[in-house]
Amino acid sequence: MTNAVITNGQDKDNDNEAEEAERAIDEKAYGFWIYLMSDAIIFALLLATFVVMSHNTADGPGGHTLFRLPNTFAETMLLLASSTTFGFASVAIAAGQRWRTLSWLSVTFLLGLGFVAMKISEFYGMTVAGAGPWRSGFLSAYFTLVGTHSTHVSVGLVWIVLLGCEVALRGLNPFVASRLFRLGLFWHFLDIVWISIFSVVYLPGIL
Amino acid sequence: MLGKLTIDALPFYSGIAIGGALITVFGALGVVALITWLGQWRYLWAEWLTSLDHKKIGIMYVTLALIMIVRGFIDAMMMRTQQAVALESDGYLPPDHFDQIFTSHATIMIFFVAMPFLVGLFNVVVPQQIGARGMAFPFMNSVSLWLTASGAALVMISLVIGKFSTAGWSAYPPYSEAQFSPGVGVDYWIWAIIVSGVGSMLTGINFLVTIVKRRAPGMRLMMMPLFTWTALCTSILIVFAFPALTVAAALLGLDRYLGMHFFTDGDGGNKMNYINLFWIWGHPEVYILILPAFGIYSEVVATFSGKRLFGYKWLVYATVVITVLSLGVWLHHFLTLGASPDVNAFFGRMAPLISVPTGVTIFDWLFTMYRGRVQFSVPMLFTLGFIVTFVIGGMAGVLLAVAPDLMHNTTFLVAHFHNIMIPGALFGYFAGYQYWFPKAFGFRLEEKWGRRAFWAWIVGFYLAFMPLYVLGSMGMPQRLERYYVASWQPYLIVAELGALFILCGITFLAIQLAVSIRDRAALAVSTGDPWNGRTLEWATASPPAAYNFAVVPHVHGIDAWWAMKQAGTAGHRPARFHDIIMADDSSAGVLLGAMSFVFAFAMIWQIWWLAAVGGLGMFAAVLSRTFRDHAEHRIPAREVEAIENRRTMAPALALGAAT
Questions:
Q1: What pLDDT is recorded for position B648?
Q2: What is the reported pLDDT for B627?
Q3: Considering CB atoms only, which of A16, A17, A137 is closest to B270?
Q4: B363 vs B341 pLDDT, higher one
């Protein structure tokens, strides 16, 4: 999106709105990458904390009894599929197809919503079964790490709704496209984080 | 309805606490009354609070720092006085109050003096040094400022409503857990840290993008002024390190609010993990505070020696090496806490390594001065005071890395880090404040009171902290509110005397400011370049126009302004002027800051409905801005020309030719 150029043929020496806009879009993309790096560090620290505390079950339930492979597999599929559908949305944005963009965003939203719903039901089930975050250090670390990821996904969902409304109302101008580009970065980033969580939290617990 | 907030939250537990609360309340009311009486609310709102101009935001940051240093210093003075009198007696402060004071002193000095001071100087100077017209994200800059101010306000209001933390500025568990600190003190600490920490994060991203993307044409990385280099490295450290602080504080909060077991005794908690997380941020933070000061010293030494910086490349490399190393030595902050000998040995050996690049910078400054025509201006005095004092502090640090465990957690440590932070950071900010004041306001600070302030500070520093080295060697633990060893008292009285000298130093700085404002006509800098500077920020008017540069300069080497003066092209009037596009001001930043205060205050007192109001308010403030793509206005060429015509160019040229 960063190379979306708009020229209006003004006197080149004057600052012109189009060049300023192009530069702003470029800088925002760069700044957003840096934000994602710092967010990645938050997840890295939460992952490290989880690893440090993975045996601190305080005689409570551990990963073997709590995590179920089919459940985690379904969640993973939902999230990976949502990244794919966001990819289709990006293709539609590049082609300037407003309604196709909206449909793919809707599909992405539904898949993401499904993921969050599964997470909520998983958390709820664990909590009522006496394995809430206050049960042990291990469970505190588990809920916080996975909960932080789910919170990010939920923020992403709100963001999809907001940008979806904008696409519907304003159409696809370069600014909207740049916002969707950053939302896409965020969404795919959360996928990568989920793969880490899956490998570090669930697989050792299940296998 | 009001959560944990009851009438008992008012500080009736001690007369001194009531006094502190009254001073805070009347101080705030006094400012409000003064502004109202002067009828300046509209001006303040339109020109300052809602401004997205990086110079004004910088000035507000520095103002915040200067207000908070007074509060932090009062805390210091109270502690010194307590320790001077508390031999075999209770002194005048109850233990609980003393503990709040050492916690708030350090929290304020690090988060609400040092951070806003350095960020303020970045804001005023860095965009001008790289030949830019503004920050990459001017609105986010305003958000950063007001989040920092909101954090500071939380610490201040804890004087009046409830108590501040007694758990030390690092809030180590298990003491900071709900079991041992059930009050709101630690919650105040947590929220002040998280709110201002987010502000710092955003600042880090902002400067990183600005420096990478907005340099004037031709300015390669190895042509950037040293201060800009340190701003870049500091921003990188902020982006990488601050998440760790946020995580540490947030996890502590989860323990306290939701009964989790990250750091508790038992139930699978792991206290060491907090300490690791905290110092993964904490050690880089030392360099976040020190590197900008190094940048300032580099600018000051070059300018006042009238020479190009000696070993520019080596200074840049040293800065980068310090940046990298600082991320790998955090464990030396807790060598006594029982990590395995191998781990301790690794970090104990890594730590002194950092003194190698630091030594390189010191030698570069000395060689810059060597055979230069050194002018002993106030910024230069602070620089020289720093060089001498910092070397002592650095060597004490190397000593700590190899010293027996018994030296740790004594006043030797207190002396060491004050010996690093006061000359290594604060003196640098003072030098920068004196050096760039005419840049921001168009008149110099008065010299005589500046010298007096410097001498009071340096004498005060030695008197206050050298005795603490001795006391530490004698085995006095830090943070004692009373003691029974008579031989300690004389040293503590000398330290109290030192604090009184520092009080004079702060007073002289205030007098200097007042005198300078009074005599501003005589101290005016018509050329915009009072020190015969070398870097681009002196190419703009003083104070600069909103857009800094009417025509963006082309850069061909380091010391771009100096080169322009040598070539005789400095201050040349361009053939014609052009339209300039600048960001509109916005009230969303200050509103977001206010809402973050409401939110955090409500979370601290567990007033959930109010927290929801604050949270929604923050969301609304962000939303109001997110979808505005044309938040900018055009300054027509005619207007630019009119502004530039008001500048006097001739003296700048004469000055350039004379040197």
A1: 55
A2: 86
A3: A137
A4: B363
pTM: 0.95
Spatial CA neighbour of B622 closest among B133, B137, B43: B137
**Using DSSP, how many helices (H) and how many strands (E) does chain B show?**
22, 2
Could B632 and A58 be called an inter-chain contact, meaning their C-beta atoms sit closer than 8 Å? no
Helix (H, G, I), strand (E, B) or coil at B201: helix
DSSP string across chain A: -TT--------TTS--HHHHHHHHHHHHHHHHHHHHHHHHHHHHHHHHHHHHHTT--TTS--HHHH--HHHHHHHHHHHHHHHHHHHHHHHHHHTT-HHHHHHHHHHHHHHHHHHHHHHHHHHHHHHHTT--TTS-HHHHHHHHHHHHHHHHHHHHHHHHHHHHHHHHHH---HHHHHHHHHHHHHHHHHHHHHHHHIIIIIHHHH-
More confident site: B350 or B322: B322
Do A20 and B581 count as a contact with CB atoms less than 8 A apart? yes
One-letter-per-residue 3-state SS of B261-309? CCCCCCCCCCHHHHHHHHHHHHHHHHHHHHHHHHHHHHHHHHHHHCCCC
CB B636 within 8 A of CB B32: no
Give the least confident one: A92-106, B81-95, B238-252, B388-402.
B388-402
* ipTM summary value: 0.93
In angstroms, the CA B204 to CA B144 distance is 10
Check CB contact under 8 Å for B268 and A16. Answer: no
Q: Which residues have CB under 8 Å from B3's CB, separation 6+?
A: B602, B605, B606, B607, B608
For residue B27, the model assigns a pLDDT of: 94
Q: Enumerate the residues of chain B whose CB falls inside 8 A of the CB of residue A162.
A: 623, 626
> Which residue of chain A is at minimal alpha-carbon distance from B583?
A20
Q: Can you tell me the distance from the alpha carbon of B233 to that of B224, in angstroms, rounded to the nearest whole number?
A: 12
Alpha helices in B168-270 (DSSP H): 185-213, 226-258
Long-range contacts of B518-521 (CB under 8 A, 24+ apart): B519/B446, B520/B441, B520/B442, B520/B443, B521/B443
- Look at residues A72, A54, A91, A44 and name the one whose alpha carbon lies nearest to residue A189: A44
pLDDT for the residue B650: 42
Q: Which residues pair with B582 in a beta bridge?
A: B633
Contact A140 B262 (CB under 8 A): yes
Count interface pairs A-B at CB distance under 8 A: 120
What is the nearest CA distance from B268 to chain A, expressed in angstroms? 4
Q: What is the pLDDT of residues B307-321, one digit of tens each?
A: 999 999 999 999 999
Measured CA to CA, the distance from residue A126 to residue A132 in angstroms comes to: 6
Q: Are B432 and B386 in contact (CB under 8 A)?
A: no
Instruction: Tell me how far apart the alpha carbons of residues B357 and B329 are, in angstroms, rounded to a whole number.
Output: 15
Of A90-104, B439-453, B556-570, the one with minimum mean pLDDT is B556-570
Q: Reduced to 3 states, what is the DSSP secondary structure of residue B125?
A: helix
Return the residue of B nearest to A163 by Cα. B627
CA distance, residue B262 to nearest chain A CA (Å): 5
Quote the tokens at residue B143.
């958000």
What residues of chain B lie within 8 A of the CB of A42, using their CB?
243, 246-247
User: What is the residue whose two structure tokens read 């205060």?
Assistant: B597
- Using a 10 angstrom Cβ sphere, with 0-12 exposed, 13-18 middle and 19 or more buried, the burial of residue B373 is exposed
Distance CA B615, CA B624 (A): 14
Q: Which residues of A touch B243 (CB under 8 A)?
A: 38-39, 41-42, 45
Q: What is the pLDDT of residues A76-119, one digit of tens each?
A: 999 999 999 999 999 999 999 999 999 999 999 999 999 999 99
Domains and CATH numbers, chain A: 38-206 (1.20.120.80)
Best of A42, A49, A52, A179 to mutate (most B CBs within 10 Å, chain B): A49
Residues whose CB is less than 8 angstroms from the CB of residue B388 and which lie 6 or more positions away in sequence, other chains included: none
